[in-house]
Amino acid sequence: MVRVVTSPRSLGRRTGRTHGDICRRMALSLLTSPLSLRAFTTMTATASAPAAFDPAAFDKVVMGTYGRFKLAVARGEGCYLYDSDGNKHLDFAAGIATCCLGHGDTSLADAIYNQMKSVHHVSNLYYIPQQGQLASRLVESSCADRAFFCNSGAEANEAAIKLARKHAHEVLEIDEPLILTAKVRVRVRVRVRVSAAANLTLDAAG
After folding, report:
1. 25: helix, coil or strand?
2. pTM of this prediction?
3. Closest CA to 3 of 47, 61, 48
4. Which residues lie closer than 8 Å to 161 by C-beta, 6 or more apart?
5. Distance (Å, rounded) from C-alpha 91 to C-alpha 109?
6. Are 72 and 83 in contact (CB under 8 A)?
7. Taking the chain (206 residues) in consecutive chunks of 10 residues, what is each chunk's mean pLDDT?
């Protein structure tokens, strides 16, 4: 087992090195150490014969931040999921609406594989030609003039609120635009969405 006993940021503050430099050095040391190489070899050798799922072992190392169903998903095929006991389930959740193509889709797997062979994530610090191509398709098939790409639903909702307020101020000349929200809401952790939500009382977990 490889244990990291300090964080890159705290180590950087003590040594004067940048966060990126510390991350690169830590990753390189982990990848090239004999211990990590032996661990990787062991994991690779045993990957084809997974052990029976142990919920107690899972709960021991994963924080209990979700109320999980007593179901361990082993694999998926189309709109079906198969649990660790081999039972077949119809997946109505679809990864909380993120698996619109289903599980194990060959075209999606091939597209991801081909992209990973070319280049991984490079951030919005650079021009990404494929991102422009996707934006063109979105603009051509919607009422939008331009596309905004972000990483999560929280960021998307926050941007939508800011854009709506900007449009209200600059185009509609509304001094105090009103944002309507549902009274019963999913707990949020983003400042703008918390401010817009009807219930401003947050519990200790919020």
Report:
1. helix
2. 0.54
3. 61
4. 179, 192, 193, 196
5. 19
6. yes
7. 41 53 53 46 49 90 90 94 94 88 93 92 90 96 92 87 93 90 59 57 46
